[in-house]
Design brief:
The chain is mainly α and 284 residues long. 55% of the residues lie in helices and 2% in strands. The chain has a domain of 180 residues: Vanadium-containing Chloroperoxidase, domain 1 (Up-down Bundle). The chain is elongated, with a radius of gyration of 27 Å.
Length: 284
């Protein structure tokens, strides 16, 4: 990238006029420009690049938490110290919302097509559930709390920067990487809500589904986007909403079963009639 930038600047520079026969008087050195990357310190370049074009004010980082605090120490442990080449390949794939959305849509379609009455009602319940987890976390709690992400306030973060790949942020925070707030993690809220609800409806798949939720949630810390408490609260919120959705699902499905309107006659998910008795909690 540096070579390409130098080539562009060289092409854009006006042609140098031929020197006169007599030696010209030496000119005093002018101030270093942002284009002269060989003379401008990196920190100064970052500061100039992150200057607001309209206000001409340099970027000011939010207040940083104490490096000795439990929150920061746990984040460092799960972020930079846990970094491995294998996780560097897997975590961006796991955390990619576009891929997760495709997987969820496939699961949803399979419930509708192959899940019988229970699967179709579970798929129907997923729609308001995911809408609730997403809106509550992203549109209500994030603006209300207004917490900055770790990559915005900490230096030396192992950070997944999209198309540019993995970077280690400068030791001193000199720019902004994300425009949204941190608390709670919407990824953790959404995936936990969906996976836990499906696990409650289809008990044989509960533990693999919960493992998926934990993995996606942890990926948010690994890529440098969230604090550990962001994902813990997000997962707790998603689990709470999933439990509420499960209670509503049990009542609706049991009521349909009693009236013969397409309830639990096709018990093909391995829950062993779990919905037939609302007071039964299932196998331990």
């Amino acid at each position: 990238m540096i070579i390409a930038a130098a080539a562009v600047m060289a092409a854009a520079a006006p042609p140098t006029a031929a020197a006169p026969p007599t030696a010209a008087a030496p000119t005093p050195p002018g101030p270093a420009s942002i284009e002269d990357s060989t003379t401008v310190p990196q920190a100064v370049m970052h500061k100039a690049i992150t200057t607001d074009a309209e206000s001409e004010k340099p970027f000011v980082a939010p207040p940083a938490p104490d490096e000795g605090s439990l929150e920061v120490r746990v984040f460092r442990l799960l972020n930079s110290r846990a970094a491995t080449p294998v996780l560097d390949v897997l975590m961006p794939i796991i955390t990619d919302f576009r891929r997760s959305r495709i997987v969820l849509l496939v699961v949803w379609a399979m419930l509708v097509i192959f899940g019988g009455n229970r699967g179709r009602w579970a798929a129907l319940m997923l729609i308001p559930l995911v809408a609730a987890t997403d809106q509550l976390s992203a549109s209500v709690l994030k603006p209300l709390v207004g917490r900055s992400r770790p990559c915005e306030v900490l230096g030396s973060v192992h950070f997944w920067y999209g198309p540019e790949g993995w970077i280690t942020t400068p030791a001193e925070v000199v720019r902004s990487y994300k425009s949204s707030f941190s608390f709670p993690s919407s990824h953790a809220t959404n995936i936990t809500g969906a996976m836990m609800f499906l696990g409650l409806a289809f008990r044989k798949a509960l533990w693999p589904l919960l493992f998926t939720a934990v993995l996606v949630s942890y990926s948010r810390v690994y890529i440098g986007n969230h604090w550990t408490s962001d994902i813990i609260v997000g997962m707790a919120l998603g689990a709470l909403l999933a439990w509420i959705a499960w209670i509503a699902f049990k009542r609706i499905y049991s009521s349909l079963d009693r009236t013969g309107s397409g309830g639990g006659s096709d018990d093909q998910d391995g829950t062993d009639g779990l919905l037939d008795d609302p007071g039964r909690s299932g196998p331990e």
